[in-house]
Amino acid sequence: MYIVHSTFAVPELKADEVIQIYRNRSRSVDQAEGFLQFLLLQDEARPGELTVHMEWETKEHYLAWVTSSEFKKIHELEKKYPDQELANIIPTIHKYKVVAK
């Protein structure tokens, strides 16, 4: 299993808006080969810190997704988001290989 975390901070007052965006996400990744699970995590101590948690069968499945046209299309839309403060956020990415369960 391969896990990817994409962590970013938004102004606390905009956290609920961003959470709604993710609740209404396109879900196209759900159809990607090897995709297992998506979760949006909110830090309890810092409510403006959000983490996208994605689980994949393998690293190769993840890499196929991030090089797909569907991935590029979704991320181009993010850049056009009307709130430029949110559109310009750059996440910190962490990638993990699951080595024990």
UniProtKB/TrEMBL annotation:
The protein's GO terms of the molecular function aspect are: monooxygenase activity
Q: Which Gene3D superfamilies match?
A: 3.30.70.100
| Origin: domain of life | Bacteria
Record domain ABM: where: 2-90
Keyword Oxidoreductase set for record: yes
Database matches in InterPro entries: ABM_dom, Dimeric_a/b-barrel, Heme-degrading_MO
Per UniProt, the keywords (alphabetical) are: Monooxygenase, Oxidoreductase
Instruction: Spell out the Pfam families in the cross-references.
Output: ABM
What sections of the protein cross the membrane?
A: none
Entry protein name: Antibiotic biosynthesis monooxygenase
Organism the protein comes from: Paenibacillus hexagrammi
